[in-house]
Predict the structure of ABC transporter domain-containing protein.
Amino acid sequence: MAPGRVPLSGDQAPLVRIRDLHFRRGNREIFSGLDIDIPRGGITAIMGPSGTGKTTLLKLIGGQLCPDQGSVEVDGLNVHELSRQDLYRLRMRMGMLFQSGALLTDLSVFENVAFPLREHTALPEPLLRKLVLLKLEAVGLRGARDLMPSELSGGMARRVALARAIALDPMMIMYDEPFTGQDPISLGVLVKLIRQLNDAARLTSILVSHDVEETNAIADLVYVISDGRVVESGDPARLTASGSEWTRQFMQGLPDGPVPFHYPAQPLEQDLFGEKS
Ligand SMILES: Nc1ncnc2c1ncn2[C@@H]1O[C@H](COP(=O)(O)OP(=O)(O)OP(=O)(O)O)[C@@H](O)[C@H]1O
């Protein structure tokens, strides 16, 4: 375990407990009996090939989608049995940072971060100002408070969105592809920030990402999902070294393995020199 990592305690109930989750979109079965535990206090990564349903899973956890069968519990509450009001309350405790985490373009950086506080609390202005500045300080952008979103780089915009996501001091935060489209420096900053925020604020983080290297660098636990189920889970180092052939191919980004490089086709010679089919 990397220095500073919060040891995942086995004796505490997981913050998120998913059992026998089934979900389909039209004819396509996205999940067919998914079981996942997200331990408190750590960073859990959900990985898997494109289209396996990682974003869908976050939406099921956040109660934006409803399972066909099975349950999703967050902090002991069955998300899909809550009244609208209780779901709304629970969502306030779940920060979300989606890839498209668009900032409100006609509001300054400060007002973007203040937005959830103005919406959900009745804090007096001086206190609200202090809180916003502290959140911006946590992401290194206190000095950028008066800028407009159009004046920010992509990496800065994502950090402002992160400050907004933690404005209400959530118990957990869900990141959907936070690294996509970032240059190496912004990427390094984001990776460090996600870890720091998790540990300093004693958050629980769920990270959905394709970026194996970055994700392995900060995750305490990785679930690899494919074809609607968990195919493997564990510590990132162990998974990379000793996972199944399929997991090794995915984690090491190998072009060939159980998932073949070539799309099924007739033999090349036949295509090149045989009769036209
Ligand atoms: N609103 C929708 N209506 C119908 N099908 C959808 C909808 N949203 C997603 N899907 C389908 O559900 C499946 C899972 O999508 P999802 O976005 O959750 O996958 P993902 O693992 O997050 O993919 P990626 O890694 O490419 O972002 C995909 O086949 C997608 O086409």
